[in-house]
């Protein structure tokens, strides 16, 4: 199979999905209104609620949701063959992920910019809200603790990525100042920022940089995340994510261009019938292994957590939410191409994929750098630096946003349970960071790798959150007497795959006598079933009320 053909096929599908399906969803289901006043205007405070240019907000949203997961997930899942991964990324993005992200953003904007967890109380009930927010906090804890480890290991293994990754922070602050305090237009800061970032990529490749141990990097990353979570979004978060999105899309553009020029062959099989012994069954694990890049519960947290507070006009929700999901799908597609066409032969590919966990970032960096070198003549070392920087910046911007989201959750707990101290953003941020550090160093010792202890539950917890978010959106649509099948069908599919995966994991943890993960898995499963049962009751009641009202009318 030609890699160039597969890339073109995927891009055409994404274009058609955004051009037609998302427009239909916006008009018929979510019914966006150009005259609606968004929370960014109603509660504007210059810190979290800031009306934002849709292009800048799209950059923030895209880079926040597109962490390392849309690289790691597909890079592992191709072990079952490239075709299942390709189909799930394309169809999942168009019909499930885009609708989910768009819907979470719409629901939050229509409800004072509240998070999807807080919104659950109004839509489903108080008990469901409490259970939902516990699952959300647990997921954010996983994301922050693990992504800190991922970034630290990338810094250790690819030291050339350190300079460009940290330089992006300085570039972002300068751009934020120019845009919001000096009134400079968007064009020149964008071009200047890109030029500086790519200069740093080159310098990072040719200049040595002092190397630190992974635990030190983890501490530095959380110190940065603490400060970033407290700064006004216009000063760092928005411009950092925006300029990163430009740099990342330019880098992805180079990778896709190299694919078109070199047109390598996919050496991996369409369906791999010789998977390693430790590889689980493709169904349901494919739909959990590839989360980000198809559908991800974390996206709903970003949509309803930070993006909803910055949306200038309600009609921007389609561009920011749905197209943000498409952007991540494009990254997942690039990963599939890099990890299946970036090897010289099937034997070399099989040699790399000797176990279920052997793929991931290293496969993406190795395969992608080979394609960039073959197609565009970029030196392998420079190409490796470029792709490592992509992974670091995606993971870093996700970590920025996730810590801020943890702060929002703690502040919402303070409001819900009338604990004024928790509404203090300095205390809330401190609690968020300290909880991550306790997990990282408490469970992982001096290495700081404690997040990896509960990482096996990330995929199922993340997809479970996606299903519950779709559940809230569906119930909300029923209450508004809107068509709901376009969220209900994806909800049922994702929920079935996720619960099946949770049950399989229960058996695996039991056989390994891993009672900690067994108990945590059971807790998550019970909480999810409880939320679903309560939502089903509300769903049926809302349907009956809608039918009665229709008869009366």
UniProtKB/TrEMBL annotation:
UniProt entry keywords in alphabetical sequence: Cell membrane, Membrane, Transmembrane, Transmembrane helix
Cell membrane as a keyword of this entry, yes or no, is yes
One GO cellular component assignment for this chain's record is: plasma membrane
Q: Where in the cell is it found?
A: Cell membrane
> Which Pfam families has this protein been placed in?
CstA (PF02554)
A biological-process GO annotation = cellular response to starvation
Q: Topology with regard to the membrane?
A: Multi-pass membrane protein
The UniProt record lists the CstA N-terminal domain at 3-340, 357-501
Q: Which domain of life is it from?
A: Bacteria
Note whether Cell membrane occurs among the keywords. Answer: yes
| Primary localization | membrane
List all membrane-crossing ranges: 6-21, 62-80, 86-109, 130-156, 162-179, 186-204, 216-237, 249-273, 279-298, 319-344, 382-405, 426-448, 454-478, 485-504, 516-539
List the InterPro entries.
CstA (IPR051605), CstA_N (IPR003706)
Q: Which family does it belong to?
A: Belongs to the peptide transporter carbon starvation (CstA) (TC 2.A.114) family.
What name has this protein been given in UniProt?
Carbon starvation protein A
Give the source species: Petrachloros mirabilis ULC683
């Amino acid at each position: 199979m030609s890699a160039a053909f597969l890339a073109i096929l995927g891009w055409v599908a994404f274009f058609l999905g955004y051009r037609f399906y998302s427009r239909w969803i916006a008009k018929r289901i979510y019914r966006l209104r150009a005259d609606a006043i968004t929370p960014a205007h109603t509660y504007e405070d210059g810190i979290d609620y800031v009306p934002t240019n849709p292009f800048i907000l799209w950059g923030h949203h895209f880079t926040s949701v597109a962490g390392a997961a849309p690289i790691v997930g597909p890079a592992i899942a191709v072990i079952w063959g490239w075709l299942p991964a390709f189909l799930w990324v394309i169809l999942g993005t168009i019909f499930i992920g885009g609708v989910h992200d768009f819907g979470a953003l719409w629901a939050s904007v229509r409800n004072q910019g509240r998070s999807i967890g807080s919104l659950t109380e109004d839509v489903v009930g108080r008990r469901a809200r409490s259970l939902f927010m516990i699952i959300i906090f647990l997921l954010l804890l996983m994301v922050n603790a693990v992504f800190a480890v991922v970034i630290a290991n990338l810094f250790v293994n690819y030291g050339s990525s350190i300079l460009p990754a940290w330089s992006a922070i300085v570039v972002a602050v300068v751009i934020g100042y120019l845009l919001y305090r000096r009134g400079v237009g968007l064009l020149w800061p964008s071009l200047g920022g890109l030029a500086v970032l790519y200069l740093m990529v080159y310098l990072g490749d040719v200049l040595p940089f002092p190397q630190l141990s992974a635990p030190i990097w983890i501490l530095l990353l959380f110190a940065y995340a603490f400060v970033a979570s407290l700064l006004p979004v216009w000063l760092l978060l928005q411009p950092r994510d925006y300029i990163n999105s430009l740099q990342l899309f330019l880098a992805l553009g180079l990778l896709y261009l190299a694919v078109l020029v070199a047109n390598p062959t996919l050496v991996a099989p369409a369906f791999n019938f010789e998977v390693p012994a430790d590889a689980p069954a493709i169904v349901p694990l494919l739909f959990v292994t590839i989360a980000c890049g198809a559908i991800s519960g974390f996206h709903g947290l970003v949509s309803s957590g930070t993006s909803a507070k910055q949306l200038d006009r309600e009609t921007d929700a389609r561009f920011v939410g749905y197209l943000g999901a498409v952007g991540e799908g494009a990254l997942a597609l690039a990963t599939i191409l890099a990890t299946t066409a970036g090897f010289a032969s099937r034997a070399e590919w099989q040699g790399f994929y000797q176990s279920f966990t052997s793929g991931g970032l290293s496969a993406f960096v190795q395969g992608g750098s080979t394609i960039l070198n073959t197609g565009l003549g970029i030196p392998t070392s420079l190409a490796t630096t470029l792709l490592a920087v992509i992974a670091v910046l995606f993971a870093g911007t996700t970590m920025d946003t996730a810590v801020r989201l943890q702060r929002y959750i703690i502040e919402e707990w303070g409001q819900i349970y009338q604990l004024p101290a928790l509404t203090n953003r300095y205390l809330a941020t401190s609690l968020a960071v300290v909880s991550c550090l306790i997990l990282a160093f408490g469970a992982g010792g001096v290495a700081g790798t404690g997040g990896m202890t509960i990482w096996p539950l990330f995929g199922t917890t993340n997809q479970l959150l996606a299903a519950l978010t779709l559940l809230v959106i569906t119930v909300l649509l029923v209450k508004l007497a809107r068509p709901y099948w376009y969220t209900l069908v994806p909800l049922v599919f994702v929920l079935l795959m996720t619960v099946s995966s949770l049950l399989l994991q229960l058996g695996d943890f039991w056989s390994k006598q891993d009672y900690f993960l067994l108990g945590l898995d059971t807790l998550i499963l019970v909480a999810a079933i409880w939320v679903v049962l309560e939502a089903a009751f509300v769903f049926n009641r809302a349907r009956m009320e809608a039918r009665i009202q229709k008869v009366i009318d």
